[in-house]
Amino acid sequence: MRPTLRAVLLTAGAFPVALLSALLSTRLWTLWLAYLALVVLLVGVDALLGLPRRRLQLATHAPDMLYIGDPAHEPLSLDLTARHRLGAEVEVALELHDDFVPQPAQKVRVRGARPGHATVALAPRRRGAPEIAAAWLRWSGPLGLWRRHKRVAIGTAVPVVPNTRAVRAAAIRFFSSREFLAGLKVERFLGDGSEFESLREYVPGHDHRAIDWKSSARHRKLLVQNFRAERNHQIVLAVDTGHLMSEPLAGVPRLDHAINSALLLSYFGLRTGDRVGLYGFDEKVRSWTDPQGGVAAFPRLQAASAELDYTKSETNFTLGLAELSTRLRRRSLVVLLTDFVDVVTAELMIENLEKLTRRHLVVFVTLRDPELARVSAAPPHTSLDLYRAVVAADLGRERELVLRRLRRMGVATIDATPDEVSLQLLNRYLDIKRREMI
Length: 438
What we know:
alpha/beta
């Protein structure tokens, strides 16, 4: 229990009263004494009428799980009860782990049997299990002269996992779309692929090379083979977990943006009949999940992606991509989600990607920071602004040089902001399937 600023100012007012008594008349010293007695009385009354610490109780309800980068998750609920007639206005502040974004304090009014309720949004910065350590409560007496403090230990760890909620929402939106389902139907039955689908009677206009002569002789009429786009492709999602991927972008580490995009692509790949695997690496191999087919394999990929941890290691592309190449025994679609700084640091990455493209189709995915474009395009008002704009423009130019070299090697590149990367990756995958590039 501590005195408030009001109490300090009220007590300090006794000094002008005493000085006034000394200047006007010594007989007025009783006025100073009466003022001081009144202040002591008010402070004592405020201390007696104030809400005692033992009568203020706090109950919390934390969400079972949080999704990284999802602002629509369940908040932390706070319920305050005070068995006190006057009650108080309680200021509540949470003591959170560093992996949570700090939240402002909230004021809750409690009185008698009426409990007070508040909600606090939890914004995780990283995956893991950060802890909600405690809640600090602060309130004043009815006269605002005393302030009481209370720390209530919570000690609740909340799991923070990849944003699979966004994956489900996007999947429901796409697979419930008539246009998307129609596209799958066309791909399956009317495609110009290489996988045999069925036989149909020949009509003028059909390709003569598609005539099945043996079946035609058996049925005594001309029959042509109908093909569909090939299924059962092998897709490997190679996720870089090096230190560059731990840097935040739009409030979320780049690694989590990459994982969310990889999970969305894996779900679509499994739904369309392909086999999907996951590969994580930095200075060494961190994770490997064999490509499997069927939607039932998605929880396995989800669990493996949640175990991809943040590291401070430098990414070894020579080791990582060479090891991946030895694990792939058939031509595959390799989606590499990574990041780079400039041409010098990307040299080894380009060299090893060139070797990988000799056997596999590679899609190179990197996240573009929109702040970089904003700084380079902003009009400079000071010399510091000019320096920042020049550096940002140089980084953007070197980034484009690396992407241009990769395109000349036959690598499909995607350089997009976090809001756009998932959609662009999905569109590129559907285009690859339509064109039967693997």
